[in-house]
Amino acid sequence: MAVSPMVERFVRQIVRKHQLTFPVLMDRGNAVAARFGLVHTLPDYLKELYLSFGNDLPKFNGDDSWTLPMPARFVVDREGIIRSADVSPDYTVRSEPAKAVMAVKAIGPE
Fold it and tell me: Rounded CA gap, 6 and 67, in Å?
């Protein structure tokens, strides 16, 4: 699954546009991301840059906090224990999916 701070109509657009086959949950106000320490506030110069590219975060996220979550991937077992975590403050850096697949396999069969 994925988690996004975007409001429902924009989440639906992303799901359709990219033909996603997994659920995308909404995290209003980045509340869940904040509990994991993953939220950062954009500085003023980036707000202007984002707006110049048509990325109006207050519109997309339904609040004027100008916050975004850092990209993160967690593998959580059935007991709720995080078995693998990958986080980067740089949105262009993402871990290889194979690492998450290995973590899932290490948990064992259902």
Answer: 11
